[in-house]
Structures are given as C-alpha cells and as structure tokens.
Amino acid sequence: MSGAPRLAGAFGLLLALAVLPQSVRAQEAAGDSLLVEVTLAGGESILVLAAPDGNGSLVLPAAEIYALAGLSAPPMPWIRLAEVGELLQVSVVYSPRQMRVTLTDTRGVLPASRERLDRLRNAAMARNNAAFTGGRGGLFGGVTVDDRREALLDLGYAGSLIQVRGSHSTVSGTAFAAAVTPARPLWLTWSHSPVLGSRIGARLALSRLWVAAEHHDGRVGVQGSAQAGPLIVYASSRDRFAVTWRGDVDVQLGHAGDRSSLRVSFGPIDPSPLSVPLVY
Amino acid sequence: MRHVPGVILALLVAAPAVAAAQVESGTRLDAKGYGVTRVHNASPSIVDVAVELRRPGPADSALALGAAVQSMISPSRFHLAPGETQTVRILARETVEPGSELRLVTTLTPRAVTQVEPTRGAGAQLVLVTRLISTVHVQ
C-alpha cells in the first residue's frame, strides 16, 4: 500500500470513529452486535448487523436501510430506529423476540414501495378480472330497466379460465363477449355488438413487461412497455413512444404524431412512463 | 456435622428447578452460512439461555462436541420468561463444507426461585442445567 491510500484509510477510520455513535462503538467493542432482519412490509427483507443502543432499541446501518427503501446513499453511516421512522416517513416496529424490524410504508412514499406497486399493477393487468375460482364460478345474469321503459337482459357463465356473456338491449340489440385465460400471463378477449362491431384483444403481462394488441375495424393496434432497472420503454403502434429514465434526475424522451420532445425533471414526482412529454 | 440433617432436609424440601425448553430439532444453514432457529421456554420459571455453534465430536460419541465454529449467533445469550419464544439468527463466519452437519448447543439455566429461610439453618438448592444439542445441516 502506498502512503497516500494508507493516509486516506487512516483518515477514513478516524472519521468513521468520530461519527459513530458512542453506543455503537461500545457494543461493537463488546461484540454485542445483533443480526436483525429488516422487512419492508409487503416487500423485501434484508439481514443487517445492528447494535443495541442501551435503551431497548437499535442502531442500524443507514446505507442498507436506505437501499431497502430504494433511496440513494444517506449522509450518515448509522441511523437510530426512531430516526428511521422520521426520515423515511414510515412506521417502525421492532420485535426483539423475533429479531426483526418491520417498516410499514402506509402512504407508499418510498421508491421501493412504488416499484412494488408498479409490479403489482403489471401483474393485475395480466389478470382476467372476469375469472373466478371453481367454488365461486357459475351462471350469472340480470335485468336492467330505465325510465324510458327500455330494458337490457344479460346472461352468462364465469369460470376459472373462461367467461362468456350474451345480452339483449331494446336500444342497441344483441351483443356477445368472451374472455379466456389459457395461461396465467395471457388474456384473450372477443366481443361483438351492433354499435361497436367486433373486437379481438390479447394481453400478455409479466412482472416488468406487458404487451396488448387489439383488432378492430380491420385495424390492429399494439402497445407495450418494458422495464429494465431505471429505464422504462413504452411504444404504441399509434405512432407514440416514450423512453423514461428514473433517477435523481428524470429524463424522458417521447414522440407522438409529428412531434418529438425531451423532458428533464427532478423532485419526488416521477414522470409517467406511458405519457409523452408535451409543451402546452 | 450438626448441619448435615438441615442440609438434607433443605435438599428434600427445595424442589429442584428444572429447565424445560424446546428447540427445533434441525436447523438449516444456507449457502451463505445463514440460518434461523427458535428457542421456547415451556418451564414455569425464567431461564437463562446460551446458544453456541460447534462441530460434532468423534463419530462414536453422540454427545461429545467438537470445536466451536466461528459464527455470529444473535442473540447468543438471553433469558426467557415462561411461555416465551426467542428467534435466534445464526451466521457462520468460517467456511463449512456443504452437506456437513454441525451442532447447535443450547444451554438452559433456570433462575433460582426458592429461597431457603435463614432461620431454618443451612440450605442448598439443586439447579439442573439442561443442555440441548440439535443438528445443523449445512447446505
């Protein structure tokens, strides 16, 4: 090791010792550190080396807690349990008997919570809302009347893989619709009505990718989105696309019709990856 | 010698404190050397618990223990009130061959609850320390 790195290392060690809370130093010297599982409720869990603060609480490594929350590196090396709640705006529960700290982001303000919600939305888009498990499936139907003395009668069947529905309206005539889920991430639909004509649709959604296509009036429309880390790409056959980079500074490049645009933004409001930035 | 009958009487009167606890029969350490187990106090008294990770002893001895494994056991020393359960997290800090077996040694010492009155002469109390040895499978 050359002199400069050694000097820098020694300086770093002195700096770390200066900022390390007394309790942490005392506990580490005593070899009394604890292995604690920190869980972001509904999300991921990590294992961290924590130190008791002497008051029945803990001092945690800040970098790992911030990484769990999806935040960039914090300014301090250690963080007390009470500070976690204040700085991250989450509720904190420490269970010594389970050696676990649970962070609950009830308002969904953390980037990690938002990413989890994005994944859930993608998964929900792949779900056939008309599908029911065997015990709840079966025939369904109903009658609707209004003050014009018009009426709608509908009848159908909903199962775990398929739903079919037929209806007759005194206003718009007879219509049919069917939805099938042949495999978990794939959802196929077909509908026909005298007003809207025939439509065929398909949707494939995985955790970070979804593609939807629709055939209507002899035209096919396709749109989809894919995410890789902070990069999200959205494209539509209707001459629209958007490339979004989410970070400390958000960058979004978009095109719609005959107009292209670029937006650079900052702050807590993430740009929607499905919208094209506009000057208006 | 005149105290001997009193000592014997005290031994008979003072019920030995027995540590009755439950530990998981098997614990798994994953490829990173991490595992979780639990210790439950099923006895009517408070017990002090010490947990350590050791290598097994000679093959012909089921109870003999080998050297301690460098590991972080969290917590390694604690106490349990009656009915309480403690989760114990284990992280081996030395390389352990995958597929091998280690021993988790849980020592339970009940806290003395019976006080012999001085007026009744000399007394003694039997404290039965229990050591539970369970298997740790390394994956």
Mean pLDDT of chain A: 83
Q: Please compute the radius of gyration of chain B using only Cα atoms.
A: 19 Å
Give the largest chain-chain interface (CB within 8 Å).
A-B, 11 and 12 residues
Biggest sheet architecture of chain A? 12 strands, antiparallel
Number of H/I helices of chain A: 5
Largest sheet of chain B: 6 strands, mixed
Question: What is the overall number of helices of chain B?
Answer: 1
| SSE topology string of chain A | HHEEEHEHEEHEEEEEEEEEEEE
Give the structural class of chain B: mainly beta
Strand order of the largest sheet of chain A: 7-8-9-10-11-12-13-14-15-16-17-18
Gap between N and C termini of chain A = 59 Å
State the share of residues found in helices of chain A, binned by percent.
Answer: 10-25%
Shape of chain B: elongated
Low-confidence stretches of chain A: 1-30
Strand coverage percent of chain A: over 45%
Shape assignment of chain A = extended
Between the first and last Cα atoms of chain B, what is the distance in angstroms?
59 Å
Task: Based on the model shown, name its key terms.
heterodimer, A: 280 residues, alpha+beta, twelve-stranded antiparallel beta sheet, 5 helices, 20% helix, disordered N terminus, B: 139 residues, mainly beta, six-stranded mixed beta sheet, four-stranded antiparallel beta sheet, 12 strands, elongated
